[in-house]
Write a structure and sequence with these properties.
Elements lengths: L8 H11 L21 E4 L2 E3 L3 E7 L5 E6 L5 E5 L8 E6 L7 E7 L4 E5 L2 E6 L2 E8 L4 E9 L13 E2 L6 E5 L13 E5 L26 E2 L6 E7 L10 E6 L4 E10 L2 E11 L4 E6 L5 E5 L5 E6 L6
Antiparallel strand pairs: 1-2, 3-22, 4-5, 5-6, 6-7, 8-9, 9-10, 10-11, 12-13, 13-14, 14-15, 16-17, 17-18, 18-19, 20-21, 21-22
């Protein structure tokens, strides 16, 4: 099992319900495949990335970190999800950089999605989404189940996803099949519009009847990458990064940058490697100060990546 899900459509529906955002039905445009990392330098904490960025350790002790969410007080919440469904996963609170993580919610089954909406924390786990509210500082006063999916439907993945700032354009990562031999396609970054069907796993980029009326991905990523978290950055990581989607590749230990160009409602993207040195990146998010937080699922380290130009590192 990968810590990513092939169950895309129900999760998009859940996110749309929570965020009350819509979309148009236009397609996206193709891009080139993921490029080999080049011109990456040591940016700190064992991470390699473009010159002009600096990496530090934001938090440690969060083995199997799988999802992030900031609350209105800019405290980081982290869900951990192991390979096995033993019911021992949890949600932790990190009050600030360098703080010791505190376990708040326990006995969860593979929680792979977190979302703060108003004063409620939504947690997506196996076959369900739960809502927690009334945080007292050590626990939640109220807990209710808001979505229940059929038994054995699969993993319920990220409910954060990523909207392009100022729009209702919803970016998602798509984890394609690994059982196709030489026909294996790369994983992908795409914009999901209301009513769009990607026909996964029957359609995997081969064309023909199986892919009729399927939209084109914004960018093709690496094969067998087990893509996971997505974040959209504008210009707060410097002009080198610019307007880009940041996508985690769990299986390859890479963080990819997809440089985005928007023409009308259409996006085109070119993928290159942004960060290496992280064993298995899954969770990613932007902090309020514009820095990027990247979690290493294997080591339990959360890295903060920021530009050196503003002195915000």
């Amino acid at each position: 099992m990968k810590p990513t899900s092939r169950l895309l459509a129900p999760i998009v529906v859940i996110m749309l319900l929570l965020a009350s955002c819509g979309g148009s039905s236009s397609s996206t445009s193709p891009s080139t495949g993921s490029a080999t990392a080049s011109a990456l330098v040591d940016i700190g904490s064992g991470i390699r990335g473009p010159s002009g960025l600096a990496a530090t350790e934001y938090a440690t002790g969060l083995t199997h970190a799988a999802a992030f969410a900031f609350d209105v007080q800019q405290r980081l919440w982290v869900a951990t999800a192991d390979y096995t469904d033993a019911g021992k996963d949890a949600v932790f609170l990190v009050t600030k950089s360098g703080a010791m993580p505190t376990r708040i919610i326990v006995a969860l089954h593979t929680p792979l999605g977190l979302l703060w909406h108003e004063s409620t924390l939504y947690v997506a786990s196996k076959e369900r989404v739960d809502a927690y509210s009334g945080f007292t500082g050590t626990a939640f006063a109220t807990h209710r189940t808001v979505v229940t999916l059929p038994t054995n439907v699969g993993e319920v993945n990220n409910i954060g996803l990523a909207y392009y700032p100022g729009t209702s354009d919803l970016f998602v990562s798509m984890d394609y099949r690994d059982d196709l031999g030489t026909s294996t396609t790369g994983d992908a970054l795409a914009v999901v519009r209301e009513g769009t069907s990607w026909k996964n796993p029957e359609c995997y980029g081969q064309g023909g009847p199986a892919c009729t009326n399927v939209a084109t991905a914004t960018a093709v990523l690496d094969k067998h990458a087990a893509v996971s978290g997505v974040a959209i950055v504008t210009d707060r990581l410097g002009t080198t990064i610019g307007y880009s989607a940041i996508v985690e590749e769990w299986a390859l230990g890479k963080v990819e940058r997809v440089a985005l160009t928007k023409t009308g409602s259409t996006y085109t993207g070119t993928a290159t490697t942004l960060l290496t040195g992280i064993k298995n990146p899954v969770a990613v998010t932007l902090a309020n100060d514009g820095s990027l937080l990247v979690g290493d699922w294997t080591t339990g380290i959360i890295y903060r990546v920021a530009t050196t130009a503003t002195g915000s590192t």
